């Protein structure tokens, strides 16, 4: 059954990709592949990239891999078969994504990575990521200040397969570990998940009822941790996140979570599309492959200015 271009684009916009030929797509289409839009950070990336693609005259093929490298590989096959001009990718694993990006490159389709790096250089045209180490140090400095430089704390870590999880943790510890009266009593992964963070926080709280603070590798886990603490009547525990989500912004404004670190997801995605457009037209971006965008501390002083992973 042959779909019109409009119906096909409606299908791919919600991640439903069948076995249609590339002829069904517009001549100039950019594929945007991210983790699940259930996480507002990834939705902001997709929205930012799609908006910039439309502004520059492209159609947007918006797809979701749900952090599944096999599904990501299938989406790459669909994008390649559709003859897209470029792929914007927030990948499903630093090692596991290299083959898919290389496959697209070998077919003449350039990839522009955002948020997460891959472990091999020279395969993607651009890897535009937040300066996670710089951002983590900002968050850690604020955490130390909020903790009064002493007390027991826990750290919630993201996915082990995600380079950002390790970089943020290192940034945190390079600051926090300088303070001998700050003692980490638990360090557990919650895989970037709010539900997992809730459950992990419940267990940590039972084992360490004297805990004073929680520093989280992302806002989604911070929200889960805060919900568990709230349910236990422990609003006294200091929680700091990382991402700059609207949910955490609202919590900060209400005196809940104390701080987060904004990584500019929307702007980052738009920059990737701008570079893709330049590369499509000229064969180069004018920038290095690996590019860092600095993060910004968000607390009660500036939370009101935060909207959809950007300061207004």
UniProtKB/TrEMBL annotation:
Residues 30-284 form the Periplasmic binding protein domain. It holds the Pfam family Peripla_BP_4. CDD domains: PBP1_TmRBP-like (cd19967). One of its GO terms (cellular component) is cell envelope. Gene3D superfamilies: 3.40.50.2300. GO terms for molecular function: carbohydrate binding. Its main location: other. Keywords: Signal. InterPro entries: Peripla_BP_I (IPR028082), SBP_2_dom (IPR025997). It is found in: Cell envelope. Belongs to the bacterial solute-binding protein 2 family. This is D-ribose ABC transporter substrate-binding protein. It comes from Neorhizobium lilium.
